[in-house]
Amino acid sequence: MAELARPTGGGLAVYGRLVSAGVRGRVYRPGWLLVRTIGSGLIILADGFAVALVVDRFGTLAGWSAPEVVLLVALSAAGQGLGLLLGDRLEPTYFSELVRRGTFDQVLVRPTSPLAWLIATQVEARYVGRLLAGVGMVAWAADRSGVVWSGGHLLVALLALVCCATLVLSICVLGAALTFATVEGSEVVNIFIYGGVTLTGYPVQIYGSVLRFLFVWVVPFALAVYVPALVLLGRTGPPGLPAALIWVSPVATAGFTGLAALGWRHGLRHYVGTGS
Amino acid sequence: MRAYLALVSAGFRRQAAYRLALVSGLLTNLFFGVVRTSLFLALYQARPEAAVNGLDYQDALTYVWMIQALFGVIWVSWIWEFPESVRSGDFVTELTRPGDPWLRQLAYELGRTGQLLVFRSTLPLLGAALVLPLALPTTVPGALATVASMLLAVVVSFEVRYLFGLAAFWTADFRAPFSIAFPLLWLVGGFTIPVDYFPGPVRAAAEASPLSAMVMAPIHVAIGWPAWPVLAGQAAWVVVLGLVSRGGLALACRRMVVHGG
User: Fold this and answer.
1) Which sequence spans correspond to the domains of chain B?
2) Which of A80, B96, B125, B175 is a good FRET partner for B38, with 20 to 30 A between their CA atoms?
3) Is B197 near chain A, with CB under 8 Å?
């Protein structure tokens, strides 16, 4: 680790080396890592299969066919995979461990940004499985629902993936910031990480106004996934949430990320350790 | 016997200490319950009267909230405590205590899940029943059968988790086998959609598996399936899985090496 601590003109290169050290530390049993990578992808395929099955059994869900709904599930799953690849270890269940044991105090004295250090050293390689399974499912669903892969559509899909991943990572950061105050981890953050992604897997018009408002304008998962899916499928969208809002998606995501960054800075500034 | 009852009560009291976890668990149940209710209301909107594969929309809503009631007691939050204790070596002290280690653990877990059944499972069910047309039992025998079926599901869940926990005797990365089996459990167990919607052969396979005793059985009893055959099937799985998990423990103890000084 001595070479890592050397404050040479590294910048990003330091973080690159931290990521590689962290990942290498976790692959000491490559067989089991592979199993867990496959497992993290399978769970998404199981979800997609169940959704396809149930929508198919009933014909449509709010006018959406089974492959069209699977496209929503797949986009949000891929985004979640990418987000958790970077942010999983910031979830309160893990992060409270660092705070309680005082390990986080050591992070603070390192010559790096604490948040960047946490993310870089704790990359969870197994979520690559979820990302890949999600992308594969996007390809299947897009094919079945007649999406034409023009350059613009590829960009829109990429936008959805990046926005969704950014939101998941931002929620993880907010959860960690909250843990500075609560010390004990709280499951409530999972409502937004897993619940937000579950909710985004279905067309937004099935929800009541409260849930809709929450997930369009507060934690903008609907703008990040649902609206790009409307564009891909050539749909106009329900009243109040037209496909034209695609231009708002990156802005809303950036806004939420900014809030998460402020929350983290506030938490860090008031962090006093747990004593002993 | 009195020792085991003391363990049940100790488990109950321990679980009662986690108030914050109870509140956040209830919020999680509420959130997922509302999302799944929206889904099934939208699905049944096109044909409100018709039953799909034997489930009408009241049955489907009952399924949604029964799953929320069961989730906390089936996939318990302390799922990794047993394998962790094997890895750290603490489990050895369990073997030196009087009585049967498997039964002691079951008794303690029944206490913990009992607390959750009383405080976490009832609230979402009763709350949902106030505002939605759930198909919950309205007679005393029906209600008792549902509670009995939930208790049997808890025991089956303990045995299934025990089998996965035993992996810790063979590998330090005991979560890996679970992570690959979990998607199958999730789907075939009926956590995400009712097993009743599956195509014929898959449905038959799912209903013949122990997972049905853990997830769908209490739901079927709640929506008014004849209770005795379902309860008998669950009891049979309790016995079979009990024998298998105890056999696994015996095997593990024989190959166990205690490190340290």
Assistant:
1) 2-255
2) A80
3) yes
